[in-house]
Amino acid sequence: FDELDTVEQTLGGTWDDVRGLLGGKGANLAEMTRLDIPVPPGFTVTTQACLRYLDGDNTVDQAPAPGSMPAEIWDQVLEALRATEHKLGKVFGDPTTPLLVSCRSGAKFSMPGMMDTVLNIGLNDDTAKGLIDRSGDEHFVYDSYRRLIQMFGTVVLGLRDELFENVLSAARTTRGVASDAELTAADLRGVVARFREIAPQFPTDPYEQLRMAIEAVFRSWNGRRAIDYRTAAGIAHDLGTAVNVQAMVFGNLGEQSATGVAMTRSGATGAPGLEGDFLLNAQGEDVVSGTRATLPIQSLGKVMPRLYAELQEMAGRLEARYHDMQDIEFTIEDGTLWMLQTRDGKRTATAAVRIAVDLANEGLITRATAVRRVSPAQIDFFLHPQLSAVARATAIEEGRLVATGLNVSPGAAVGAVVFDPDTAQRLAADGRKIILVRPETKPDDVHGMLAAQGILTTRGGRTSHAALVARQFGKPAVVGVSALEVDLVGHRALVGDLEIAEGDWVSLDGGTGQVFLGQLDTFVPDISDSWLSTLLSWADDYRRLGVRANADYPVDAQRARANGAEGIGLCRTEHMFFATDRLPLMQKMIMSGSTTERREALDELQPLQRSDFLGLFRAMDGLPVIIRLVDPPLHEFLPTFEELSHRITDAKIRLSAAASLDEIDGLLTRLRHDEDLLGRVEALRESNPMLGLRGVRLALRYPEILQMQVRAIFEAACDALEAGGDPHPEVMVPLTTDAGELAAARTVIDAEAAAVFAERGVSMPYQVGTMVETPRAALTAPKLAAHADFFSVGSNDLTQTTYGLSRDDAETSFLVDYLRTGVYDHDPFTSIDPEGVGALIDLAIDAADLHEGFEVGVCGEHGGDPTSIGWCHEHGLTYVSCSPLRVPVARLAAAQAAL
Ligand code: PEP
Ligand code: MG
Question: Which residues contact 486 (CB under 8 A, 6 or more apart)?
């Protein structure tokens, strides 16, 4: 660990390269050693050695045979071991001054609990005796010895942990005590003897122990749970793990000894100050496994004030060195504090945002770094549901708050209780919402945890496996709910007399630790006035790309603006017609036999649209509001052919059995209406509606619809202006494929606008633009630009028409297989396809560049996708437009693209 300078010089690379070679843990142990932080001496076997050993095998089945460690690696291990012995004046395997070591995995990226560790290596009957002579503490030595055999047995020899746990629990019962710590030295000697019988292959040669342990850690890189974790976390599979061999220090040497884990700031909220747990007279795994009730780290300040102050001081130094919140492990051996590990701490989205902002305000990082630190996915968390206050209060009043545990990963989760991870995975794949309930979680449960809405455990603390994994993946979680007893065999949980069966609904609040029976209402949090708004305001300082919202109703527009949207990039006006009070009017319009009749129906719709538009202009006062003319084919506003046929058959059957004239009358009217509708549906029926009478084609075919919409837009704009507002109306023509279409539509739009302005005696600047949604529109963009003031890329349709695959069907059909088998490397409906769709968008941008002030935005779903936002930034688009809830994500992603 004290050769970091040499490693850096030899490698000649960055800190990232150092971590790649030594693993995160090894690099940090070396760095702490360089910072003069007390670290037990030891050495790191590199990831390169691991890869050499695994020799490129990346599957569990093809793992190399034990005992095949290359000789030169082992020789270097021995050399480094000599140096460690020298530092401590102890000798590995020597009964008089025995050195014991730990052997821990440490990959480049932290994978908590996914790989293996063996402690107390070097103990056998002889060294145990020597250690007893030196320490005079037989209890401690046999406790360490039994831990070695147990860990070696499970990790290296692959024996089941229960075999060992059963022996321990029998010993506790015989002695009549509750914890292992209360067993006597003689009891533990008996336990060791039994363990040796259970694990007869346990090597008594310390060197054999060390070699086998290192190889086992190497192999654990390719264990199933490690592979699953990497796949879920997006970590490459070819990095390998380093192995850290380090002199043991003991937290179980009596009441002046302790061991603990802590975050330098709260991993849940980001609040400053140490947060963690410790145990007196214990070894590390006792703290993380949750088997003994831990004490909060603050109480260390009462028991060992000097050491607590030292710990706080070291925490500060580590944060200053790493410029981030740290997750530390320490051990106090007989009054001396040792740091065993430091790494960047896992945190919730809430904590990530607060820590980034606080660190910038404290001068530890720049604002730009703070903006880079938080991922768009973490921002997305704020947009996830939380329990509604009313639902919570009602549930409490009704006695449905059944238990409370530790609030380790915020957010509300509502789902049906499931007790095993495989079932959880299966049900979730069927689209069911589930909550995974376990006594505690282990790495083998990760697939079920990922599939669950939320996680509930009865044991474990803030740093337990369940808490860490939940936080990393943004899953709401409540752990350590001690009032809850899980009966895995009976598939039920008990809280006192209350039984919760598999399939019962529960609601969790990972922010308060509360567990409720039943399905509680949730809401999406308000993000204003918080650390998040500070971070986003910093993001705004860096981004070049504008962020607008796709908003159809005034309330959406208000929410979008509160989230930071700089205008409306797309109002899909047809959505306004789908409202229940408007649909009949729309249907009346579609059913009209003549233009006059149609105009009458449109006259009724017009004031409704006008008032919606006025709401949009008000909400976005001073900002652009792009209103798109009606786009989908008209049959979408009518019932389907099947539905109508069914209704007609049903009416006919009822007619044949009708009892009164009134009833017959009513049924006949209904029947005639449905038959008329059916006729119209048939007339409007198209083989390929997506390529049919929609978009600008519809507007040109029924210019009266176009006129009505344009009139509503400009009358609303005049209303807004007269009320002292500053409306910026922009009219957008959908699905244009030809300059002639656009020219024709524009003539109607300009004429109608002029008519409204003349009637109202006012005038204002406005723009008319078109969507670019087909390859032809992109290819002829220079011609379209001659008739347009702006372009907006409808990337949903442009992807559909460029690939020639249906946006409504592909993602539930062959595309799923394409993505699974790697035929496509990404879903083009999620992220812009740079080669095809992107090339077409570039044509539109080139055409726009020839005109001063000509803006080009993207308003399909891609506008809210961080990867696509990066692409849009690089390709010089003016803005992206996305749903109001995605606006904060887009602001951050746009800033990160620019940084
Ligand atoms: C698009 O096609 O990308 C678009 C924004 O329009 P819509 O989704 O309404 O077809
Ligand atoms: Mg479209």
Answer: 419, 437, 438, 439, 458, 493
Mean local confidence (pLDDT), 815-837: 90
Residue 375 domain-assigned? no
- Give the residue, 328 or 137, on which the prediction is more confident: 328
Q: What distance in angstroms lies between residue 584's CA and the mean position of ligand 1's atoms?
A: 25
Nearest to 482 by CA among 402, 403, 396: 403
The model's pTM: 0.78
Alpha carbons 843 and 836: distance in angstroms, whole number: 11
Please, are residues 737 and 746 in contact by the beta-carbon 8 Å criterion? no
Closest residue by Cα to atom 9, ligand 1, is: 572
Inter-CA distances, 618 with 359, 409, 567, 739, 761, Å:
38, 39, 11, 33, 21
Query: Which residue out of 552, 568, 630, 631 has the highest number of ligand 1 atoms within 8 Å of its CB and is therefore the one to mutate?
Result: 631
Whether the CB-CB separation of 670 and 662 falls below 8 Å is answered with no
Q: How many folded domains does the chain comprise?
A: 5
Ligand 1 atom closest to the CA of 862, numbered from 1: 3
Out of 51-60, 489-498, 670-679, 878-887, least confident range = 51-60
Rounded CA separation 46/50 (Å):
7
pLDDT higher than threshold 80 for residue 766: yes
Q: Are residues 549 and 696 in the same domain?
A: yes
DSSP class per residue in 225-291? HHHHHHHHHT--TTS-EEEEEEE---S-SSTT-EEEEEEEE-TTT--EEEEEEEEES--HHHHHH--
Task: Tell me, yes or no, whether 512 and 563 share the same domain.
Answer: no
Which CATH number fits the domain that encloses residue 747?
Answer: 3.20.20.60
**Nearest-atom index, ligand 1, CA of 797:** 2
Q: Are residues 61 and 169 in the same domain?
A: yes
| pLDDT at res. 377 | 81
Q: Tell me what the pLDDT averaged over the chain comes to.
A: 91
Q: Is 29 helix (H, G, I), strand (E, B) or coil?
A: helix
Q: Which helix (H) or strand (E) holds 306?
A: helix 305-322
Instruction: Provide the pLDDT confidence category of residue 76 given band limits of 50, 70 and 90.
Output: very high
Q: Residue 319 sits in which domain range?
A: 258-347
In 3D space, the residue among 797, 791, 742, 790 whose CA is nearest the CA of residue 775 turns out to be: 797
Helical (H) or strand (E) element with 307: helix 305-322
**Residues catalogued as catalytic:** 465, 859
Angstrom distance (rounded) from CA 254 to CA 324:
34
Picking from 116, 127, 186, 207, the residue whose alpha carbon sits closest to that of residue 153 is 116
* Average pLDDT score over residue span 449-455: 93
Q: Write out pLDDT tens, residues 261-294.
A: 999 999 888 999 999 999 998 877 777 666 677 8
CA-CA distance, 810 to 595, in Å (whole number)?
A: 38
Q: What ipTM does this complex have?
A: 0.99
Q: pLDDT confidence of 548, banded at 50, 70, 90?
A: very high
Asked, for residue 665, whether it belongs to a domain, the answer is yes
Q: Which residues surround ligand 2, an ion (CB under 5 A)?
A: 773, 794, 797
Q: Is 57 known to sit in a ligand binding site?
A: no
pLDDT digits (tens, 9 = 90+) for 136-171: 889 889 999 999 999 999 999 999 989 999 999 999
